Hints:
Layout: E1 7-12, H1 37-57, E2 61-66, E3 83-86, E4 90-93, H2 107-116, E5 121-124, H3 137-140, E6 141-144, E7 149-153, H4 160-170, E8 173-177, E9 193-195, E10 199-202, H5 210-221, E11 226-229, H6 232-235, E12 243-246, E13 252-257, H7 258-263, H8 266-272, E14 277-281, H9 284-290, E15 299-300
Parallel strand pairs: 1-2, 4-5, 7-8, 10-11, 13-14
Antiparallel strand pairs: 1-15, 3-4, 6-7, 9-10, 12-13
Amino acid sequence: MKQLADRLLMIRPKFFGSNSETLSSNTFQKEIEDSQAVAISENAVKEFDSFVTALESQGVLVDTFEQPSDNTSPDIVFPNNWFSVHPEGFLIFYPMESKTRRTERLETVKDYLMRIYPEHEVVDMAWFEDENKYLEGTGSMVFDRKNKRIFCALSSRSSQDLLTRVGEILKYEVVPFETEENGTPIYHTNVLMSVGSDLAVFCPDCLKDKKLKKKVESMLNEGRSHVIKINADQLNSFCGNILEVKNQKGKKGVLLSRSAKNAFSEAQLEEMDHEKFLVEASIPTIEKYGGGSARCMVSELF
């Protein structure tokens, strides 16, 4: 079963900004003053374009869509929260907590996905928004496709009930856990954990249950030669928000932000880029005001 994608989908923003509806649950995100709004949005577009160029220069295929002029969602640059594609033959659409973010589900993208995955079964879970239940895609869930597991940090954006449903659909074991950082649950699992083919990154100190910390770490070690443990400072530099991918020639790589790369130790970077290429994204604006990093900006197309 494939663990790594060699094709990514990204959405180029036109109206990037800080979403007031997500500030309370996302402690990584900062508010924008009105006088800064235009300059910050322009910087975000430049950061996005630079990231795409860096990915393509390493042979990673990127399908890029433009934010429509009549769509003003500030978080459209993070498409991984509203859909996911699975090698098992499923295309899943997810319910999101923020009402503003629900406008990110572009019909052009949905039509494109239906076209390139005509045989996939479509599972639309967005209607759970009416029941105030949410599960925000590969932000809420980190998939260990190698061992058929889903890791999930429970929060207001990640319902255990919906997690169980996805596990039943994919026939994966679900591994839910509670987290805490500065007295607050971590809003998305993919900021504290990344799972690749032979590489995993994990912040064990975020888990509240000590026994579960050891269990999760043991699970991550199954079939992997490199498991890197990060601390709280590294977590806040988005060291957990990385993604292992491969290019069109099958070579493995890791995409991460510059802030994350700078926060990893030399020993950790050496362990991470062992026979892999690194795609470094300089995205300080997107990280600061969007509260997400490199992994959040891409959806995997298997």
